[in-house]
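ingest -> validate -> predict -> emit
validate: passed (alphabet ok, no gaps, 197 aa)
predict: started
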Amino acid sequence: MVRLAKFTETQFIESAIDLAAQCGVKAVSMSAIAGKTGAPIGSIYHRFDSRGTILAHAWLRVKTDFRQEVASRWQCGDSWNAVVGLLDWCRRKPVYARFLMLDDDAWIVDASLSLEMLAALETEQAELDACFEHCALALQGKVDAEAVAPMLRFILIDGPVAIVKPYLTNNQPIPACVDVILRASHDAVRGWANRTN
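emit:
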């Protein structure tokens, strides 16, 4: 009779995401993940050879989810729809959002990572960058060419992150006024960019 695994890779990855989102990356250790899941530490090492590997899997999972649910909206050039998508994602998946907004992602590149994992991380980043580029291309001719990239970075990422991060960090719901503020900011910046054309 085949014995089914009591704990899954997904459980360990999700625990790593939750620990990092709540307490910072330094709090993520194999023993902390074991404590959170109730699994023997050997069960984690059976699936992941290092802390760096499990963090890389966590990063890949969250970034892929963000690309599929949020950045995919960037591609058509409807920047407000993209902001709405980000707000919706942050509200539905606050732990993922907190994880993605950790101050420094340099910890992801670990010397112990396999070439396969490094390639997967690079591919995911390239796909995310491509979504941004599609949005920029969709706005060509509508917005001053020099203003496109900084404008998009501000209205799609920097502005929304700046306003939602304090709520996420403090485990508070993102209030409806944030949507209104971001809409006003979005329209003002898009209006400015259109006038510079």
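DSSP finds nine helices and no strands in the chain.
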